[in-house]
Amino acid sequence: MSFILQPANEDDLPELINIQLAAFADDPFYILLYHGRPNGPEVRQAVIEQTRSQWREDLTLRAVKCVDTSTSQIVGFASVRIVKDPDMATQAPAKDEGNDEKGAVKGNLKNQKLAVPFTDIKARIWVDGESYISFGVLAVHPTHQRRGLGTKLVQWGLKICDEAALPGYITASPAGADLYARLGFQRVGDVVNKASDFEGLTEDLVSVCMVYGTDEARLAGMRVRVAKTDGPTG
Questions:
Q1: CATH classification of the domain holding 22
Q2: Which of 9, 32, 87, 98 could form a disulfide with 103 if both were Cys (CB 3.0 to 4.6 A apart)?
């Protein structure tokens, strides 16, 4: 059995989103974000629509799919985009998308307190208008995990960083952070959403902020700025 990477396009989105929601079905962040229904049909369709819109609007975005050559089945995918003006990216106004299930999917990260520490920490890490490569969702279907496909997908993104001579940035789960660290990412700080701030959450949600391709002096500066963050980041 062998696997190859191929460019992904909009026609692949239903299959890609199925993989994403299956891969993160038990992830506490997804359960909170999608109100306990990360595999619901309304959630699935809303995520497809949201992702399609993002792909059309962001011309810097690149996506790749991992294909099982023996079956032609897509078993994983990843995406990256170039953030050319971090200041503007972190200050973009939020749009109210409603309170129903689709609205929760489309608007939750932008409109609720869940998003605040992510926006704040990015503003502290990326200053002086520095461009960088932002790593988006990376997902491998549960039936194909632990076969090195995650590594293959991360390396694809790192090649883009190296060719563009730009640093990379990702927020990873604590479980996924080890993979990124092995491939050259370095931890800058954590985003912590407190359980006490969200109904039904029994433990804090921790996301690890990591950068790639940054020299030691700049990395030290990032860590100092993150350490001074007020509020729910660490």
A1: 3.40.630.30
A2: 98
